[in-house]
């Protein structure tokens, strides 16, 4: 059975860049829609239900970070952000808002498509075994519904935050180095600052830990990386 082509929404107010991306990705058999500002982007997002949004940071009526947050509050959409800046300031803020990847302008279209394929690979079907909810004391992680609850209260995580938490919790007690987490969760060899892992871990801790400064679930193993571990046994 042939899978339907992935749907990609391209949001950029520069017509040259927007049209270049649209033409190139259309040739790669993706289903493409485009928008040049935040208002039309949200309208297209609600109508089109994309799998991935390529989102410029600077738009005439909004900031891409805000749009990223709004979109991910509605679905588990993947977000790839475009930036003119080469420093880490934009990236740190964007990853904190839920972005899955960053591309710095000017960019190579072939590399762009490679990154898109890498992100979309994370949509692969979850096996029946891993669909079982993970329950650790007051924390419940349901991979089938992609829901997290703490004390039975729903907790909103971005798509990437959920993937990272679920991966760690599926391997309790195992210590993972940052490059390993990037390879396993991001699902490709990340080129850039490995502190992107720290940013996402920090965001997850704020949402699921009673005291994020004294985490009881996701532990830092100094000089190595992170592990998920609780004192209570796994219930189911």
How do you describe this structure in short?
The protein is α/β, with parallel strands linked by helices and 236 residues long.
Structure notes:
The chain is of the alpha/beta class and 236 residues long. The chain has two domains: 7-123, Response regulator (Rossmann fold), CATH 3.40.50; 129-228, Winged helix-like DNA-binding domain superfamily/Winged helix DNA-binding domain (Arc Repressor Mutant, subunit A, Orthogonal Bundle), CATH 1.10.10.10. The protein has helices spanning 15-27, 38-48, 64-72, 89-97, 109-120, 159-169, 178-186, 196-208; strands at residues 7-11, 31-35, 52-56, 78-83, 101-104, 134-136, 139-142, 147-150, 153-155, 176-177, 218-221, 225-228. A five-stranded parallel β-sheet has the order 2-1-3-4-5, with helices on both faces. A hairpin with a 2-residue loop joins strand 8 and strand 9.
Topology:
Blueprint: E1 7-11, H1 15-27, E2 31-35, H2 38-48, E3 52-56, H3 64-72, E4 78-83, H4 89-97, E5 101-104, H5 109-120, E6 134-136, E7 139-142, E8 147-150, E9 153-155, H6 159-169, E10 176-177, H7 178-186, H8 196-208, E11 218-221, E12 225-228
Parallel strand pairs: 1-2, 1-3, 3-4, 4-5
Antiparallel strand pairs: 6-7, 7-8, 8-9, 10-12, 11-12
Helix pairs in contact: 4-8, 6-7, 6-8
Distance between the termini: 34 Å
**Count of the separate structural domains:** 2
CA-based shape? globular
Low-confidence stretches are 124-130, 232-236
On the 0 to 100 scale, the average pLDDT is 85
* CATH domain class of the largest domain: Alpha Beta
Number of contiguous helices:
8
Could you give the order of the helices and strands? EHEHEHEHEHEEEEHEHHEE
Radius of gyration over C-alpha positions, nearest whole angstrom: 18 Å
CATH superfamily of the largest domain: Response regulator
The residue fraction in helices comes out at 25-40%
Q: Strand share of the residues?
A: 15-25%
- What's the CATH topology label of the largest domain? Rossmann fold
């Amino acid at each position: 059975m042939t899978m339907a082509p992935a749907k990609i929404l391209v949001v950029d107010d520069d017509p040259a860049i927007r049209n270049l991306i649209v033409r190139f990705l259309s040739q790669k058999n993706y289903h493409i829609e485009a928008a040049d500002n935040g208002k039309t982007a949200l309208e297209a997002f609600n109508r089109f239900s994309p799998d991935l949004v390529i989102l410029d940071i600077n738009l005439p009526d909004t900031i891409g970070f805000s749009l990223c947050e709004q979109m991910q509050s509605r679905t588990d959409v993947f977000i790839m952000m475009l930036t003119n800046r080469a420093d880490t300031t934009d990236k740190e803020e964007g990853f904190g808002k839920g972005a899955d990847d960053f591309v710095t302008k000017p960019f190579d279209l072939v590399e762009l498509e490679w990154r898109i394929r890498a992100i979309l690979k994370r949509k692969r079907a979850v096996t029946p075994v891993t669909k079982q909810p993970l329950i650790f004391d007051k924390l419940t992680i349901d991979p089938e519904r992609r829901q997290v609850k703490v004390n039975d209260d729903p907790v909103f995580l971005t798509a990437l935050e959920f993937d990272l938490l679920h991966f760690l919790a599926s391997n309790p007690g195992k210590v993972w180095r940052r490059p390993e987490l990037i390879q396993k969760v991001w699902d490709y060899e990340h080129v850039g600052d490995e502190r992107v892992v720290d940013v996402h871990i920090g965001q997850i801790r704020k949402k699921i830990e009673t005291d994020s400064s004294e985490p009881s679930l996701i532990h830092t193993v100094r000089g190595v990386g992170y592990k998920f571990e609780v004192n209570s046994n796994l219930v189911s």
